[in-house]
Structure formats: C-alpha cells, structure tokens
Amino acid sequence: MTRDAEEAAPAAWLAAQIEEASAAGIAATVSRLIRDGTLEAGTRLPTVRDLAPRLHVGPGTVSAAWRALREQRFVEGGGRGGMRVAGSVGGPSPLRYTNITRYWSPDTLNLSRAVPDPALLPDLAPALQHALTDPKLHSYEVDPITASLQAAAASTWPFPAEAWLCSRGGYDGLLGLISTSVVAGETVAIEEPATPRLLDILDHVGARVLPVALDDDGPVPERLAAALRHKPVAFIYEPRNSSWAGATVTPTRQAELAQLLEHENLLVIEDDAWGTLSAEPYHGVGALLPHKTVMVRSYSKSHSPDLRIGVVGGAASPIERVRVFRQFGDGWTSRILQDALAWLLTDPESQATVTRASEVYTERRQRFAALLRERGLEVHGGDNLALWVPVRNEHQAMLVMASHGIATIASSASWSGRGPEGVRVVTAHHVPELEKVADVIALAAQAH
Ligand SMILES: Cc1ncc(COP(=O)(O)O)c(C=O)c1O
Question: Which of 48, 212, 239, 257 has CA 20 to 30 A from 159's CA?
Fold first, then answer.
C-alpha cells in the first residue's frame, strides 16, 4: 500500500503494521516503511493520541519513537502541523553545514568556505619522505598518537595534557568527544555564534543547547553562569579567533570563566581551530583547569587540509572514551600523516612558512575590512580567514551577491535560535578586483 504525499497514514493501518509496540519497535517499523517507499515523503504520521491507544501503550512510547525517527532525519515537523515523512531520507546529516555548493557554477567566486590558500601551505614532500622512516611503519598496532607528533604538539600545548589522541581533523576530534561524553537529552553550554558543524553535531547526539553570548573577550561570564544553572555536561568554546565573532579570551576573562567552571562537574572542550596559525595568544581555561579540559587543535588550516589531522590533548577519561570508541572503526590515524605533521611542526623552514601565512591572512583580512568600511559597512569580528558583515536581510543579501556570481554563507546557521542577520565573507584568498567585490557586498547589505 503506497501512501501519497500529503495524505495521512491512517492510525489503524499503521498500528496493524507494528509488530512490537515499544518505542524501538515502532521506530523500526516506521523507518522500514519509509525506506521501502510505502510511506512517501510528505506523508503525515498519525498523532500520538491516535496511535498510542491502538497499540495499548502510553503516549510517551509513541513520542519516543517519533523523537528517534526525527533524530535520524526520517521524519520532520511536529507541533500542530504533525509529524511528516522527511523530504530527503538520508539518515543523519549535518544540515547546517551541507549547503548548495555542489550546484554552483564553476565561475562562482566562493567566499563561503574558510579554506587555506594552497600557496601559503608548507611543502609536504620532505615531510612525507621523512615520515616513511617511522620504525612502526606498516604496523597494525593501535596507538592513539605517534611519539613524534605527541612530542611536537606538547611543545606548544598551552597546558599539561594527561592524555593525547590524533583525530582525523578538528571536527572529527569534536565529534568523537561529544558523541562519547554527551547522552541524548543532556544539556551542553556553547558560546554563540558557533560553527554550523558544531550545532549539527550537538543535534546529532540529541543534546539540548544552552547558548552563551560572546563579547570581544570571549564568553560573557554572566551568561555562562546562567547556563551553568541548568547543569550542562559540557561547555564548548573557542579560546581564540572564534569563528564569526573573532573573540579571543583575555587573561582577566580566563580567570573569571575558570572561577565559574572550577566546581562544576562538566567537561570543558576547547576548539582551537587555527592552532599554530593563530596570531592571537591562548588564554583558555585549560591552563587553569587542565583536569577537566580537553583541547582539540586542527592543523588543517595551518599545515594542509589533506593531512586531515587534529590533535586532542587534555583530561584523561574523555580522551580514553574516544580512543575506545574509535576501535569500532579506523582505530588510529595513518602514522605517515602524523609523522609528516610532526616533522613540519619542528622544521624551522616550515615553521617560518606558517608564520608568514598568518601574516598574509591578516593583511588580506585587514584590506578586505578596510574596503568594506570605506563603503559604510560596520564589519567586525571575523576569525583568521573570514569577516562577519552585518546585513539587513541575510536571504536577500545572498541573492544579490549570487546574482553577481559571489557566494557567502548566512549567519543564521551559527545560532541555535535567532541571531543578528549577517553573512560570513572569507578573506583568505587573493581576489582580483576586490574593490568590485566590496561594492557588491555593500549593495547586498542594504537589500531588504
Ligand atoms: C571553528 C572550527 N573548529 C574546528 C575546525 C576543524 O577543521 P578540520 O576538521 O578541517 O580540521 C574548523 C575548520 O573549519 C573550524 O572553523
């Protein structure tokens, strides 16, 4: 029986399909009916009130099934409109992060992704050559990190780490930590604006997000104190060059935040996205509370996205959970890539290349910001590779820019609720005729 979109699946019919009237059993039957096409996209599901009595279960059982299906993106909606079969059934998906990039014309000037300029990355050839000398090369032994990468990371780590792990980039480290430390329904405090992918990860694990506002000096203590009243299991923030806001925690703020967090039973996760590329000093709370902090440092922007390396260092037990969880999958990161990065981190010429890249990114960002300010825009914040531009209407601004062949990303993806309208403009690359691009952005900012 194929059900047409928009039509409601009758409760009696659905109840008859369900063999096991538990939350898991209901969810399993409905997901099978969706997968095999019996329930098409758009089909309304019966209400909890209609279905529960037919299955002789309480409303909570059906609600739990609907919740599980929603988390897996099989269904969407809720409230008065009821629950519907989702338009694209693809399992869990980072909805804010995945965008329409694949539909863009190759001529589009893509200012939406903060990726490094390949010309500013260190040369990988000698590093990879050196990495082949690792005595453990070709071993199947599961080590969380190689000795050389641990030593190289430790030499610039801002606090003594109890444990270390090499992840496949920064977000993989965050995903591992969050999935193994947060149970669905638990609350997590995060600074906002946050990266779209962090919000996606938190949705994926079913966390309830407690936003903590930022100012130029990092998370605002009063706002963190308010979030802590809800007993979050984790607090996640970027200690320097935060995405969107460009905030860097100062020593005064560091002490204020550490005082608030000191007696809380939670995990502090520090996202150090720019790592050695950052021109800002680190004053994170990890330096004061190393036993409850884990820092995830990405080397993708500084050394190459294709090394796919993040280093996770800090409190022992959350890192151990990630190490164990990883045994379901790849277990460890290629020793070749780890040792190549370790070599780059200690080679003076490569260190100089990263320092130079940081200077060039700063120059490019400042030049872009100056051009926008000359056009009356109040640009502020911005991390290492991007700027944040307030606009009157994000959607219209993006349409105006798209009509001129320019792609940016809307700020709404960085808020769990509603935030100020804006677009994030990547400044990391050499753009010919930057003045003309600035003209278009200034035009777009006025659109409403
Ligand atoms: C705020 C933030 N955290 C972490 C990362 C980690 O990046 P990757 O997974 O590419 O190493 C990024 C990269 O864009 C980022 O912007």
Answer: 212
Of 290, 324, 346, the one marking the end of a domain is: 346
With H, G, I as helix, E, B as strand and everything else as coil, classify residue 272: strand
Which among 300, 341, 387, 388 is the best mutation to test ligand 1's pocket, defined by most ligand atoms within 8 Å of the CB? 300
> Helix and strand tally (H, E) in the chain?
15, 15
Of the candidates 392, 415, 442, 199, which has an alpha carbon nearest to the alpha carbon of residue 425? 442
pLDDT of residue 184: 85
The distance between the two most distant Cα atoms of the chain, rounded to a whole number of Å, is: 72
pLDDT score of 70: 85
Is 94 a member of any domain?
A: no
pTM (2 d.p.): 0.88
Tokens of 421: 């309208």
**In the block, which residue shows the tokens 């329409």?**
100
What is the model's pLDDT at position 172?
A: 97
Q: Alpha-carbon distance 240 to 298, whole Å?
A: 13
**Which residues of the chain fall short of a pLDDT of 50?**
4
- pLDDT at position 382 is 66
Angle at 173 between CA 420 and CA 283, to 5 degrees: 65
| Ligand 1 centroid from CA 342, angstroms | 19
- The answer to whether 428 and 386 are in contact (CB under 8 A) is yes
In a shared domain, residues 342 and 407: no
* Top mutation candidate among 112, 113, 192, 195 for ligand 1, by most atoms within 8 Å of CB: 195
